[in-house]
UniProtKB/TrEMBL annotation:
PANTHER family in the record: TETRATRICOPEPTIDE REPEAT PROTEIN 4
Any Gene Ontology biological process: protein folding
Signal peptide as annotated in the record: none
Organism expressing this protein natively: Danionella cerebrum
Lineage top rank: taxon: Eukaryota
Keywords: Coiled coil, Repeat, TPR repeat
Any single Gene Ontology cellular-component annotation: nucleus
Protein name: Cns1/TTC4 wheel domain-containing protein
Coiled coil: 187-229
SUPFAM superfamilies assigned to the protein according to its UniProt record, in alphabetical order: TPR-like
Lineage of origin: Eukaryota, Metazoa, Chordata, Craniata, Vertebrata
Length: 393
């Protein structure tokens, strides 16, 4: 429990504790030998109350008595008592209760600006150790407004600004404090830290700007390469034909910036252009008969479908192909016309680029998608029944 101390000397003790609080440990815990004696000092468990209450021997009773007779004291006296109570809580590292005590002290609206400045500064310290940097900074600012030369408030303001990564603000706090106390060690250290981190933040910001510009240039170059090849990009069912080529380009670039939605988010793959100017696409294969899929993260546009099928269904067939029907020579590939719903059969000897350049082929969300069926199988006949099939020329 927090104890009430008297006099202005407690401020010096509080300052000393703040400087060394991390090294201090709570040493007033009960032990097996003294718990009965200690309990008898707690007002709730006292068997008899002393006739004359000595604040030194019975600080808790003195605190209760002061609360009972609170109205008889001036606002300054009440605020000072609450400040001392907050200091005791702070020393116990009970920062939440310390904040409450300091706040109650400020509510007394005493006419002593120096006392109010101390209350604000101490509350800023408690908020700081609770991690409430913005509240701590506000209190430090309020303390400095009441007492412009209050070094402790200035130091706290600088610390909060550093934690909030407001390095320019931290430097301003430090410079103002060093005008008052040019040799203050803490302010000199804080200014050096703020200056270093400010320069690092500015450097990182410049790097991020250069990187963003480079990425934008790469995306624009990628879009130009795709347009040059005559490949159509669409964004799911939300795509609508536009009479404006510029609008189509802007939409396509936006699609690329979203990284092909499904492909980038699910697999981490996206279309890219290598140093030789060759495009590599993420390609999805669908096997509707078995509800299975295959994904190639970087399908070179100059590579034929046959090359990939021979690898995918070469020496080892997939475990779901229990009938072992999915052999390269038995497979048929199709893409779907996204506007008309027709299926186009792909010549597996053709390259990916050759297929993507077909006027009815389009790339949804950055990922070309193809349907794979076993030629002449019962499922294939049923699946294709009623659909308009055209062979890719």
């Amino acid at each position: 429990m927090a104890t009430l101390t008297q006099g202005d000397d407690s401020d010096d003790a509080m300052d000393e504790f703040m400087d060394n609080f991390q090294k201090q440990k709570y040493k007033n815990a009960f032990s097996e030998n003294n718990w009965e004696e200690e309990f008898d000092k707690v007002p709730m468990f006292m068997k008899t109350a002393p006739e004359n209450i000595d604040p030194e021997k019975h600080p808790d009773l003195a605190c209760i008595q002061s609360i009972i007779h609170d109205d008889e004291r001036t606002p300054e006296e009440q605020a000072r008592s609450l400040k001392d109570e907050g200091n005791d809580y702070f020393k116990e590292k009970n920062y939440k209760k310390a904040v409450v005590s300091y706040s109650e002290g400020l509510k007394k609206n005493c006419s002593d600006p120096e006392l109010n400045a101390v209350l604000y500064t101490n509350r800023a310290a408690a908020e700081f150790y609770l991690g409430n940097m913005r509240s701590a900074l506000n209190d430090a600012t309020a303390a400095k407004k009441l007492k412009p030369d209050h070094i402790k408030a200035i130091i706290r303001g600088a610390q909060c600004s550093v934690e909030l990564r407001n390095y320019a603000g931290a430097l301003q706090w430090c410079n103002e404090g060093l005008k008052l106390v040019p040799t203050d060690k803490k302010l000199l250290e804080l200014r050096a830290t703020a200056d270093k981190q400010k320069r690092e933040a500015e450097r990182d910001a410049r790097k991020a700007k250069v990187k963003a510009k480079r990425q934008l240039n790469e995306k624009e170059a990628l879009l130009a390469a795709i347009k040059e090849r005559g490949i159509k990009l669409v964004k799911n069912e939300e795509h609508r034909a536009s009479d404006s080529e510029d609008e189509d380009a802007s939409r396509a670039l936006a699609d690329l910036e979203l990284d092909g939605l499904g492909s980038q988010e699910v697999t981490g793959a996206r279309v890219y252009m290598d140093e030789q100017g060759v495009l590599h696409w993420p390609v999805l294969f669908l096997y509707p008969e078995h509800s299975q899929t295959d994904f190639i993260s970087a399908f070179c546009e100059n590579t034929s479908f046959r090359d990939h099928l021979d690898v995918m269904f070469g020496e080892e067939l997939p475990p779901w192909d229990t009938d072992q029907k999915y052999m390269p020579q038995n497979l048929e590939l199709f893409f779907e016309d996204s506007e008309r719903g027709n299926l186009y059969q792909v010549d597996v000897e053709k390259s990916l680029l050759n297929v993507l350049q077909h006027q009815r082929c389009s790339v949804k969300t950055g990922t070309p998608t193809f349907i794979v069926l076993v030629s002449g199988s019962p499922f294939s006949k049923q699946y294709l029944s009623g659909k308009k099939i055209q062979r890719l020329k």
